[in-house]
Amino acid sequence: MSTVPAPVNNNDVRRPNKITRYKAQSTGGPLDDPTPEYMNLLGMVFSMCGLMMKLKWSAWVAVYCSFISFANSRTSEDTKQMLSSFMLSISAVVMSYLQSPQPMMPPW
C-alpha cells in the first residue's frame, strides 16, 4: 500500500501567523462579592459593642454576622480572621450573660 500525499490547496485562507493562544480571564474585579468581608467587619464591631456596652442584642447580632460571613466565604479567604471574628462574637455573648444572667430585654 502506498500513501498518496494530500493535495496542496493554494487557495487556503487560513493564516498561521495570526493564531494566538487562548488565555482565560482572571477572576476578580467587579464580580467579587464583598459580603463576607462586610459581615466579618460588622461582626467584629457588634462584638466589641456587646463586650464594652454589655448589650446582649449586639452580641447576638455579631454571632449572626459571623455565621453569614462563614456561609458566604470562599475557600481562598483567610480562615484565621473569620475564626477570630466568630470566637470574639461567642465570647461577647458569654461575657454579656455572665455579667447579667437575666433574659435579654428588647432594646425598644
TrEMBL record:
One GO BP: protein insertion into ER membrane
Pfam hit, one: ASTER
Subcellular location: Membrane
Source species, domain of life: Eukaryota
Ranges of biased composition (kind: Polar residues): 1-11
Region (Disordered): 1-31
GO cellular component: endoplasmic reticulum membrane
Transmembrane stretches, start-end: 41-70, 82-99
Chief subcellular location: membrane
GO function terms (MF aspect): protein folding chaperone
UniProt entry keywords in alphabetical sequence: Membrane, Transmembrane, Transmembrane helix
Family to which the UniProt record says this protein belongs: Belongs to the Asterix family.
Protein name, UniProt field: Protein Asterix
Record organism: Littorina saxatilis
